[in-house]
Amino acid sequence: MTVSDLVRRGVSVFDQLEVLLPLVNKPIQYVGGELNATLKDWDAVQVRWVLMYPDAYEVGAPNQGVQILYEVINERDDALAERTYAIWPDLEALMREANVPQFTVDGHRPVGDFDIFGLSFSTELGYTNMLSALSLANIPLLAADRDDSHPIVVAGGHAAFNPEPIADFIDAAVLGDGEEAVLLITDITRDWKQAGCPGGRAGLLFELAKTGVIYVPALYEVEYLEDGRIQRVTPTAPEVPWRVRKHTLMDLDSWPYPKQPLVPLAETVHERMSVEIFRGCTRGCRFCQAGMITRPVRERSITGIAAMVEDGLKKTGYEEVGLLSLSSADHSEIGDIARNLADRYEGSQTALSLPSTRVDAFNVDLANELSRNGRRSGLTFAPEGGSERMRKVINKQVTEEDLIRTVTTAYSAGWRQVKLYFMCGLPTETDEDVLQIAQLARDVIKAGREATGSRDIKCTVSIGGFVPKPHTPFQWAAQLDHETTDSRLAKLRDAIRSDRNYGKAIGIRYHDGKPGIVEGLLSRGDRRVGAVILAAWQDGARFDGWSEHFSYDRWMGAAQRAFAGQVVDVNWYTTRERMKTEVLPWDHLDSGLDSDWLWEDWQAALDEVAIDDCRWTPCFDCGVCDQMDTEIQVGPTGVTDLPMPKVPDHAPVAERNAQLPN
Amino acid sequence: MARQAPVRDVAPTVQRLRLRYAKRGRLRFSSHRDFQRALERALRRAEIPMAFSAGFSPHPKVSYANSAPTGVASEAEYVEIGVTERCDPGAVQAALDEALPPGLDIVEVVEAHTPDFVQRLEASIWQIELPGLGVTEVEVAAQKLMGQGEVTVERLTKNGVRSFDARGPVISLVVESGPECAILRAVVRHATPSVRPDDVLTALRQVADLVPPAPPKVTRLAQGPLDPDGATVGDPFTPDRAPLAAAKT
C-alpha cells in the first residue's frame, strides 16, 4: 500500500482556498455554485471525471462542449463530472505559496484525485494553461512520469485533431464529437477498475487504444528523415491501429444537451443561453478547419430546437437565446424557426440572436425577423477575401454585387452599422488583394448613403491573420511571415484613413501578425514542438490568447533553446510550403477527409476554381461519409408551424383575488 | 436615419415590493453586479410579473439600496421591485428564494406602503471575525480608536485614492470572544464616502498597529434606522408593516 492510498481522496480544499479569495481579483469565478450545477457523492460512483476548459472562467464557463459532456457524464449512475478552469496568475501565486492544489469549482476537490482529466481545446493557445493546471494539480507534466495514482489526461476539441505538439503531456486524445466518446471511455475505465486495474495505467491506455477511436500517443513511434521531415509514424503493438478515427454523433434530436444550461454568477463572455441548431458545415471554405473536420451536416429539427429553447429559458431565466452553428442561416428550416420563435416570444422581453455572417439578403430578412421589436444596431457579414480572385482561392462564393445588394438591404431596413470580416495572409495573396478591402468598404458606405439618404452610415472592417490548419486544403500552404502581414495591414489602414470622403465612416480593426506565427507553430507542429511549449511555460507563458499576457519574444526565445542543434526552426513549421509526398504529423489521425481530395482541392484553390456545397449539389467525394459511415442529416421536416404555448392568466405569485388593503 | 424607440404599451406598476435578502457562505464573494444578474434571471424563472421601463432596451424595475462589498457576507441587503399584477409578498418570497442559488436567500418581502425607504437605511451593524487575535488586544485597539476625534484613512476607488475620516461615522465598537478569533461588532453610520469594514480595520491598524494574521470574515448583520442611545439599528420594514397591522385591528 502506498502513501497515496492512505490519504482520503476527493476531499474539498475550500477551507484552504477561502482565506486566499479575499486577496484576488473577481473571486466569484472560483467558488462555483452556478444554477443547474451538479455535485455528486464521491463514493457513490466508480468513474470520476474532471473537465477543463483551459482558459479563464469567464471564457470557459459558457463553453457548450464542456457543458454537454458535464451533463452526459453526470446523468450516469456510475460516474461523476466536475469542472475546473485556468487560474489567473494572482491566485496561482497564492496557491503555490499556500500549497493549495488545482481544484474543481463544483466540489473544490483536488484535480489530481480524479480518474480522468479531460481538456477541451478550442485553440492551441490553451496549451500552456494545461501545463499550469497539471503543475498546480501535482500531476507530472510528462505523461511518461505519471503512475497509477494520477488521472489519465485526455485532450479533445478542435485542436485535438493534431495533438502531436502536446503528445508528451497527454495520455490520450479524442477526435470529433465527445458525447459518445466520454461514455465509451467511462465504460472501459469502469470495467478496468472492476477487474482490479489489470496492467495498471498502461493497461487502461492499451484498452483505450485498441478501440481505434481513442489516440494514445505513447503507443506510436515517430521517425524522422535527416532533413527534419517525418519518415513514418508506427504503432508499437499489433493491436494498436495504424490510424485513429474521429467520432461523429448522428441524430442530434436524440441528444438535446445541455438540458439544463449552467447559469454562472460571474459575468462571462456570453451572457445568453445557446442552442446548437446543427453541427457541421459543407460550404467548403478552404481556410476553415471547423468546416472540414465536423462533416457531415447534421441538423436538429424545428421541433427539437423549439423544445430546447423553451425548456432552457425556463430553467435558466436568461433573457437572450443564441441559435448556434457554424453558419446558422443555412439550416433548412431557418425561416420557419425564426418566424415561430419570434411569434412565440414577442413582447416577452426575450431576445433571439442568430450569429450568422452569410452574405445575402435572406440573412438580413432573418435578422429583421428576430429584431422585430428591438434595436437594430449592427449586422456582420464575412466576405473573408478582399478581391474576387481571393474569394475564389478560398472558396467563399460571394461576389461584390452580392455584398453591395446585401448591405443595401440591411441599411434600408434600419441597420445603421455593418461589420465586415476579412482575412490577411491567405495563400497566393498580394498587397493588391488586401487593398481591395478598402475599395469594398468604400462601395459599402456609398451604397448605404444612397439607400438611406443619410450620412449616418458606418462600416467596420475587421481583419484576422490567416493560420493554415491541419485537415484543410491549406494544410500544405506556407504561412505568411508576420513582417509582411503587418506591412499589408499598414498599407490597408493608410488607404482607408487617407480617404477624405469615406475614411471617417470606416472603422478598421486588426491585430499584428506575431501571435499568428505562434498559433501556426502549435497548429501544424509535431512532437518536437512539445519542448518549445514546455520551455515557454517554464519561462512564464500563460493565457496566451490574451494580448496582455502573450509575449512573442518569450515564445521565440523558447523555440531557439528547444530547437538548438536541430534542423528545424519556427520558420520550418510556419512559412514553409509542404509537398504532397511529405508525411504530415496528423496523417495517422483520420478526420474522414480523403487526402487526395484535400490535395485536389488545394490545387483547385491555386487554379482559382470554386466548389459547391454537397447539401444542394451532388457529392464531390471529400471522403467523410464513406469513411465514417455517416450521412448528411438535413430537413425540412415538413413542420412549419409550432403550437403556441399556453400563457397563464395570472403569474403564479399573483393574488387570486386582490383583497389585501392598498 | 435615426430609428425611434418603438412605442409600445407599458403595463403600469400596480404594487411595489421590498425584499430583504442575505448573501451567505461562498456566495459572499459575489459582487453587486453578479447579484443583479442573478436576481433578474431569478425574477424571470419565478415568473414574477415585473414592470418594465419603456424605450429601446426595456429593463425590469428594480432599485438596489447600498450593497455590501464583494467578499462581505450579509444578512440584511435590500431591493425594491415594481410589479404589474398585485402579488402576495409571502408567495414572492418563496418563489424567488427557490429560483436563486442557495447562498443568495430571500429572507423577507413586504409591500411598500411608505416613501423614502433608502433614507431609512441610516446605519449598519457589521460583525468582523478576526482569526488569530485575542479579545483583549482588539478591545485595547477599539478603545484607542474610539478615543480619537478623527482618523483619516485612504482607499483606492475608481476615481483614484480618496482620503476620508473613518472614525466619525463609527457609533460603537464591541468586542466578543469567538472560536479561535475575536469578534468585533461595529455600528457604523452611512456617510459619503461610506465607511466600510475594511476602512475601520485600516483605522485600527493606523492607531493601534492591529494587524490580523489572516483575512477577517465580515458579515453585515443589519441595516436600518439608527437608534443613537442604544447604539443599534432598527428594522427598516417596520413602517411598511404598520398599515397592515392597523388594517387588521
UniProtKB/TrEMBL annotation, chain A:
SMART domains in UniProt: Elp3
Signal peptide positions on this chain: none
InterPro entries: CHP03960_rSAM, Elp3/MiaA/NifB-like_rSAM, Radical_SAM_N2, rSAM, rSAM_horseshoe, rSAM_sf
Gene Ontology molecular function: any one: catalytic activity
Start and end residues of each Radical SAM core domain: 267-509
Region (Disordered): 639-662
PANTHER family referenced in this protein's UniProt entry, alphabetically: RADICAL SAM DOMAIN PROTEIN, SLL1084 PROTEIN
Protein name: Unannotated protein
UniProtKB/TrEMBL annotation, chain B:
Region annotation (Disordered) ranges: 214-249
Protein name: Unannotated protein
NCBIfam families: sam_1_link_chp
DUF2344 domain sequence ranges: 16-197
Pfam families: DUF2344
InterPro entries reported in the protein's UniProt record: DUF2344
